[in-house]
Amino acid sequence: MGVSTPLHQSLTKKILTLSLYAIVPLALLVYLFSPPPIASLSYASTSPPHGEKQQGFSTAAGAAARKQQRTKASPVPETLCDYSEGEWVRNAAGPRYNGTSCGATIKDGQNCVVNGRPDPGYLYWRWRPRGCALPPFAPAEFLELVRGRHVAFVGDSLARNQCESLVCLLGSEFPVDLVHDGGEERKFRRWAFRSHNATLSVFWSPFLVNGTEKSSSPGAGGLDHNRIYFDQPDERWAAEVPGVDVVVLSFGQWFVQSAMYYERGAVIGCHHCPEPNRTETGFFGVFRLAVKNALREVIARSSAGREKLAVLTTFSPAHFVGEWDSPDACARTQPYASGENEMSYMHKEMWRTGAEEAAAAADEAGARGSAVTVEALQVTRLADMRADGHPGPYFHASPFAGDGGGKKRERVPNDCVHWCLPGPIDTWNEILLQIVKRWRKNASSSR
Fold it and tell me: If both were cysteines, with which of 63, 112, 188, 238 could 182 make a disulfide (CB 3.0 to 4.6 Å apart)?
């Protein structure tokens, strides 16, 4: 081992001193500019992503999580079932009702079996959500939850389709009276379940806001496009909001039609623009505006302290393939398997828009201190998988039979928009039951 000299000792001290001078400033820089550790947060997605694996979300869960962040002492919200993702599985039990037992309620065009649809296999499927269970519909439970209350469906013919499904499901166990008939088109109807003093209504409002619908015979001089006024509520249903306890909004299909859009008396856009020198704006933005304004109307017109549930049924896709009058326009006989059919961009965007606006309305209601609960009934994914559930040519009785026993028809009109009753749309109401159940539970616990 060598002997240390004075020169070596001097050099060692200088090196140590210089090292300390270098390390101290570096340590200070690291301390000052390094970010603090980030706490792990658990949150619900605010919208279905564009990726292949598309997840739905619960507006109730999202609103509860955001409320918890504002109020430190709030309990952790319960984990909610995401009914929007899953698969259709065979179910030997079949539906609770049929086209004969509920024939007085079902619109003729959706009474598929009575109209002669030959393949009953579409009736024997149930939705199985991923990671949780969806109980079968229980009429007694639903009516007990809405005892003494008014449930209203507002929107286009798919709102009516869902309402008639619910009437049939409830009527499978309890007597029901039609107390107001909306005529041939069934646009405004009301039923009473006197055993529970419960009322069900349907209100026709294809845009949810005020609008002028195109004529059914534009060639005869009628209006050949829709006119929609986004700053004007549709008073046909909005005026009834104070007396409604559960309002279910369902619409969207009319927005793909030719239309002019107005706000404060001025044109703000158009789709398939019917007027010259107008720039196409599409319909995604105005569809969002209609959802936003309709939900705000529900919140604004609700009495202070009166618990109310507003449910937005997300967009229900159509399934036309090829020409509208082809026998194969929607001739599928069983559901798509999970991942078998890619959802279209339009259907994704309509789903996203409705879900996002329901979440925003839930936040707005909370910020106002409103007693209105807002939820999204996310059916877009499970509906997109049921191309087999439409009437197709069987929205008319015996559609292929020739007149007077003549030659069989080869080209017939198809309905690939609405749903057979009974059929897949009954599942919408199974999920609705769970939403109403949670609403009543939360309302009771907050008293």
Answer: 188
